[in-house]
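Annex B, item 7. Sequence and structure tokens for protein A, then protein B.
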Amino acid sequence: MAQAHVVVIGGGIAGLTAAAVVGGGAGEPARARVTLLEASERLGGKLRGGEVGGVRVDLGAESMLARRPEAVELARAVGLAELLEPPTTAKAAIWTGGALRPLPGGQVMGVPGDLAALADSGVLSPEGLERARNEVVGEAVADDVAIGRYVADRLGREVVDRLVEPLLGGVYAGRSDEISLRAAVPALLPVARGGGSLVEGVHALATRPTTVGTPVFQGLRGGLGTLPEAVAAACAAAGVELRTRTGVTELRRTPDGWRVTTGDGEVLAADAVVLAVPAPAAARLLRADVPAAAAELDTVEYAGMALVTLAFRRADLARTPVGSGFLVPPVDGRRIKASTFSSNKWGWLERSAPDSFVLRTSLGRLREEEPLELADEELVARSLADLGEAIGLTARPYDTAVTRWRAGLPQYPVGHLDRVARIRAAADRAGALALCGAAYDGVGIPACVASARAAVAALDRVLTPLAGANVTERTMGA
């Protein structure tokens, strides 16, 4: 009896998850033989570990939402349960009005549900606070709306500029006046569709019971870069073929499945394909045989950003920064858009390097990506200048690292979920093809893992009969 062959194109966390689920590397029985192809020299995509100043750190994503279970479950399935560790502190601030001000409690992605906490934070001007207090209750949202415009209409522009924009910017590096409420903050959709008070609706969301003892976020001792390493190891142990430095130049439909041509001219026959690459790459591969999907994928816009990681000797710090870090409203015109005090945020990092203090900054957002073209030294200088103003930092780092994520974050404009539905409908019509990754169902790690599992589920009807089919029958198209 022949086993179906699935080719996964793309080795980020979504592609690795799909390969693990199909190939038996995630604690489940193998459903097919799997070959994973990754164009770059490494697996893991935006999850990347490295060393700065002799300290193991994350050079990409550093935490995963724990109240969505998919990523935590994957970590446990590949043997990382004992390494799961929540942040030591989640006390973040907003750098605005010339000072660090506490991020107000009772908010959902910057939308306030507690006006007293908002007032106490000092984030808004007296005029902005008064406007928020005089909420304009508008008509119910019928379908979808840009979250920035929706909040501005009800609570005023300043709430958007000082709170929603920096929080959403931390997730998407985008612009709140374009980002879909339905796609990016679905928890607010019932509130918007209800047509009542936005503040009251957010208050109800922010105060609803949660699972006792469940942290909001989780990290991994040693950094999230260990997750793709562990998934890849589990895949390899299960017999999945993992190939880096192997780009795909052509993907064509055949009577029995798909023909995958690699950059060196090798041709692989696949019964099914999982595309786990960014939208532009997916569009290029699908243009010949699935043009409807390719046309939709061509419309996905991406933002780029740079991460600057700085390692200091604690003895050189006049005072140790407090809290987990701060966000920066773009309206204030600063150079950085956020800073994370990594040694405060992660207990494992402080324990592993007690004499060092590691923090990082981020620069760049949608259509403002000039920082990606600057030299490393200039990005470090800009970061230190803003940190000097924000927290009085005068020490010089003993080591630095700059990581550029070009076209790193897909944007979710109004109508994004309808676009995704059209892409998937076109892929479904092509047959034996599924897509997953950050361009579709969410940019967070749990969302990418869930996207991969959904892609595999979409192929179940293809894989199940093929797994038990006779090779000769399948070759003949039976």
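Protein B:
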Amino acid sequence: MSTARREPIAKVDTAWLRMEQPTNLMMITGVIEFSGSVDFEHFRRIVANRFLAFPRFRQKAVDHPRGCWWEEDDQFELSSHIRRTALPGDAGKAELEELVSELASTPLDKTKPLWQFHFVENYVGGPVAISRIHHCYADGIALVEVMLSLTERSAEASNRLVEQEAWKQKRAAESNIFNRLTAPARQSAGLIQNVSQKVVDEAGDLLREPHKAAQYLFGAGEIVSELATALLLEDDPPSRFKGSLSVRKRVSWARPLPLEEVKAVGHALGATVNDVLISVMTGALHRYLVDAGDDPRDLTMRATVPVNLRPLEHARDLGNHFGLVFLDLPIDETNPLARLYQVAEFMGQLKRSKQAVMSLGLLAVLGMGPAALQKPALELFSRKASTVLTNVPGPQQTLYMAGAPIREMMFWVPQTGSIGMGISIISYRGQVFCGLITDNKLVPDPETVMTHFLEEFDNLLHLTLLIGPQDGHVAPDTYDEVHEWIRGSDQVAR
């Protein structure tokens, strides 16, 4: 047995480590597109210098019947983790999506630290870095922080190698990396991660004393009620988006939307940017079903939505500090305005609930138990949703990495249990990027959904311009007025 230094894996992270199965790999996959040339050897030096400043990424995750622990990889080889590759044929977007799909379907080597970077040199739009990191290391918010820590606001600074400990201390003193994520969200996107401070404080109590998770979960009346409500939810019915899974994933992403346009639509309609984007994606899924000959009128569909519960004092920690909530998607609704206000109503209900804290506590409790208990319990929850929906705020200024400006970025989070689809939204540099990952057996052409996404946003934008705001805003809770307006908008649209 190895004598390498060990430390136990947190209980919540243990649950994510053991959640992996061939049909759903627990990887967070990201794509960064550069403008201008990037030398591969220089890229590798920069990534190794800054990424490995986090000691966790030199450790492998060991899953043993006696428990799970982090263990130093005494055979660590950088070449196993940072690789160069090239696209075939035209080396365009279709070929890049095919490569990302292949990587998202391929497990990481469990005998090594569970992360890789793949550097694509010949993409027609410029060099591309594809990252794959196992969810047991951290949640999406933390990993975006880590990825952003590889970047700088100038090309010159991004080219420098750093003294790792001094660099980490300087970063923390200058401004919390966490603030680089949350500030743009609070100012513009109204993302779901920004839940009430009370919920964040309660989550902080769990994180500071995780051994009390079970007591907290089963001792708080409101949270027990949320658990009961979640357990009593009917399973999402079989559909083109919900069914038996294969081992092959497909990914696609749309051209970016101007953030100002999305904000303008939300402002005119009295909704958040998040409401607008979720309703537009729901419309795209509705259209996909109709085009395939399905009738969505009697179909119900939910998304599981990660909610950040990371207190500020944990901002630079790795690990998983988020809860999950169930969001109803009005997949049966044909009118884009009605769809928007239904999403806004459902989102408002979630922000007032304690579902997120309940699920964080539940994951901690499951992490304490055997794997044989974890998988059936998690499958019970995954049956109640058809997709995962993640919205991560990114910085609004241009960032540089290894001397080159980053033009675009995209990511996809894993799906759990029987869920076969994931929707991802990220804002960066005044634009909103939306991507989709699907099971090839269910939706072999996610690019079609992304085309519908752009069409649905254009429809909502034009409809907003046609009808104009009433008295400046229409509040989502004035439903009688809203439905009168919607009936009028149907006439305008015709």
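Comment on protein B: The chain has a mean pLDDT of 79.
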